[in-house]
Amino acid sequence: MSTGSLRIGVLALQGDTREHLAALREAGVDAITVRRRSELDSVDALIIPGGESTTMTHLLREFELLEPLRARLAEGMPAYGSCAGMILLASEILDAGSVGREAAPLKAMDMTVRRNAFGRQVDSFEGDIEFEGLDDPVHAVFIRAPWVERVGPDVKVLARADGHIVAVRQGRVLATAFHPEITGDRRVHRLFVDIVTGNA
Ligand code: GLN
Description:
It comes from Mycolicibacterium agri. In the presence of PdxS, forms a dodecamer of heterodimers. Only shows activity in the heterodimer. By secondary structure, the protein is α/β, with parallel strands linked by helices. It has helices at 17-26, 37-42, 53-62, 66-74, 84-89, 187-197, and strands spanning 7-11, 30-34, 45-48, 79-82, 90-94, 109-114, 124-129, 138-143, 147-151, 156-161, 164-170, 173-176. The chain contains 6 helices and 12 strands. The protein has a 7-stranded mixed beta sheet. The chain has a 3-stranded mixed beta sheet with strand order 5-6-9. A hairpin with a 2-residue loop joins strand 10 (156-161) and strand 11 (164-170). It is globular and about 40 Å long.
């Protein structure tokens, strides 16, 4: 598939949707917001933005998107999640939130993610980290960020911060605990587009 014929959605229930749309458009992709079932059905791939995973879970249920999204991911739709999006893509979430208001795993990647893991130490920090496959380090911004505590055998670790896993890929699913969408560096989005088109 060529980049020009691609349509990638950004889940737009809550969070930093606009920044992801801009990053995708700069990468030459037709990017749309996804709030409805028909929009979800029309995209080749989906980004789940940063925000608040418990609120997004609540809204996914309200908008009747939770099960359709799980189904599309189970069928192999490529996806990228940043921060809250990483949490939701996991198969298991630790510290998922208060009872009745937990973040629900979409189970697109075989990994255990701890929500607000860095947040317990420091709310927000940034730094340059090595990212597998990219020549120069990525400037990574962490905001009440999760980390990955366990990965399954098919998950490739792409980056670590302070020894903790913060970027992963399993097949056509990518996740970062940080927010490349807000730094203007488009390499992670370009990597995702290459994953979707089968060029990475
Ligand atoms: N702590 C948030 C959550 O639990 C994630 C923070 C973020 O996306 N910047 O969803």
